[in-house]
Design brief:
By secondary structure, the chain is an alpha/beta fold. It has 16 helices and 13 strands. It has a six-stranded mixed beta sheet, sandwiched between helices. Strands 8-7-6-9 form a four-stranded parallel beta sheet. The protein is globular, with a radius of gyration of 22 Å. The termini are far apart.
């Protein structure tokens, strides 16, 4: 089967460009690009056949959840150019189990069926691996075939993107540069790109300032851009949607709730579900909730104002959900299209709400990062409001590992987080090393 994919204008301008070309905006309208597949060629395989093929590849011996869907991702990348760390095929933890962390959480929050897609169990601890395996593999193929000359692959990051790019770049032997806002990423996130040998530039600005710099560097041809403006990232991340359906027996949930800052992951969910529907693999789209922190909420403000044409930029304020502290999201047009297609809504969570949501999830046996806390808090708001019904099947996408945010967790339990009352704080109790004193305390 001769399958192919190209870059095309997201708005529909004429022209197509090979995936191996360093191009990030439409030359005609300066809009975003999208990866477009030869859907006629893909449709020659029935939905039933696709489901069976993907199910055969889902096993303990599969190298990658992303590349198990290779025909839908980047079909022209040869096997020996793929750079993978075994990303994808992450757990979908369900409240339907007789006992388990999500069952208790669902009961406390009033959900009939709640599931958590644990994307933070992947190699570098976040869903960013899913997009980066595709981007770095395409660049690796382009460099090997001499279609592309790359000085370095670069990104602006609030932490997780830099970790993923550094890891995959190191695996491919490609030079990596990451631009981080100084003092705004966790220690765990900072040490990851340093450990992988990336050149780490800590700039005196926020993420949006880092993004302005890296965009200009890519425009001058000094670096290859690895942020989600590059639609290759969307191609890998869209497999989250396909995996969710596959893990539910090829059924689609009623809602998917995802924390989103630069909004590429929201657009990726739409791309994945829409492609599966068009090819007859699923029969409908779920509804989408884009969850944002109140301190970094440009999409929420635009949605509440009824804006469907653009998302005005804001100055993002400090938030514990540091990975989504973005005031000028690059993928806003894609996310707006996703909302329209999926009957979506946008909700926000305060610092107190996201922190308490994490603590509540942790008390149930999960270990939630602050961005997942945003999603859980927003899902709870929608449930209390009645937007999400009691019998709806709801999937919350957990985008990163809670282990990356030890300072946040400790700050909560020590009651040191600003604007957070920490109603579920659990602090160590100092006691003498005396059996009778310990027994007295336990009694």
């Amino acid at each position: 089967m001769g399958l192919s994919a190209t870059f095309r204008c997201f708005r529909g301008c004429d022209g197509s460009y090979p995936l191996t070309q360093a191009i990030y905006r439409c030359p005609t309208c300066d809009g975003l690009l999208a990866v477009r597949h030869d859907m006629a060629a893909l449709a020659k395989t029935s939905g039933e056949e696709w489901r069976a093929r993907f199910d055969r590849r889902w096993s303990a011996t599969s190298a990658s959840g992303v590349w198990s869907k290779r025909e839908w991702v980047a079909p022209e990348v040869p096997e020996d150019a793929i750079v993978t760390t075994g990303e994808g095929m992450t757990p979908l933890v369900s409240s339907a189990r007789a006992a388990g962390p999500v069952r208790r959480l669902a009961t406390e929050l009033g959900f009939g069926e709640l599931l958590v897609k644990q994307c933070g169990t992947t190699h570098t601890g976040s869903f960013k691996d899913l997009g980066m395996t595709v981007l770095v593999s395409v660049v690796n193929h382009a460099v090997r075939s001499r279609a592309l000359d790359v000085r370095a692959i670069a990104c602006a990051s609030t932490g997780d993107t830099s970790a993923a790019l550094a890891a995959y770049g190191a695996a491919a032997g490609l030079p990596v540069v990451v631009l981080l806002p100084r003092g705004m990423v966790s220690v765990t996130q900072l040490v990851q790109p340093l450990s992988h040998g990336a050149r780490v530039l800590a700039l005196d600005t926020d993420f949006d300032g880092c993004m302005r710099v890296v965009r200009e560097l890519s425009a001058r041809g000094l670096v290859y851009l690895a942020n989600s403006m590059n639609p290759l990232r969307i191609e890998g991340q869209k497999t989250v949607a396909i995996e969710i359906a596959q893990q539910l027996g090829w059924e689609v949930p009623d809602w998917v709730v995802i924390p989103s800052g630069n909004l590429g992951n929201s657009a990726a969910l739409w791309e994945g579900f829409a492609m599966a529907k068009e090819l007859g693999v699923v029969d409908r789209l779920p509804r989408l909730c884009i969850a944002q922190a109140e301190n970094a909420n440009p999409m929420y403000l635009a949605f509440k104002a009824g804006r469907r044409d653009e998302v005005p930029a804001v100055v993002a304020k400090p938030t514990q959900a540091s990975a989504i502290r973005i005031g000028n999201p690059v993928s806003a047009p894609r996310a707006m299209a996703a909302l329209e297609a999926m009957g979506g809504v946008v909700e926000q969570a305060s610092e107190a709400e996201l922190a308490d949501a994490c603590a509540r999830a942790d008390r149930s046996g999960l270990y939630a990062d602050p961005h997942t806390g945003v999603a859980i808090a927003c899902a709870r708001t929608l449930r209390e409001r009645g937007t999400i019904r009691a019998d709806d099947r709801v999937v919350v996408v957990s985008t990163a590992s809670g282990l990356k945010f030890t300072e946040f967790k400790l700050g909560y339990h020590e009651r040191k987080l600003p604007d957070v009352d920490a109603t579920l704080a659990n602090t160590p109790i100092p006691l003498p090393a005396d059996v009778d004193e310990v027994a007295k305390h336990l009694a």
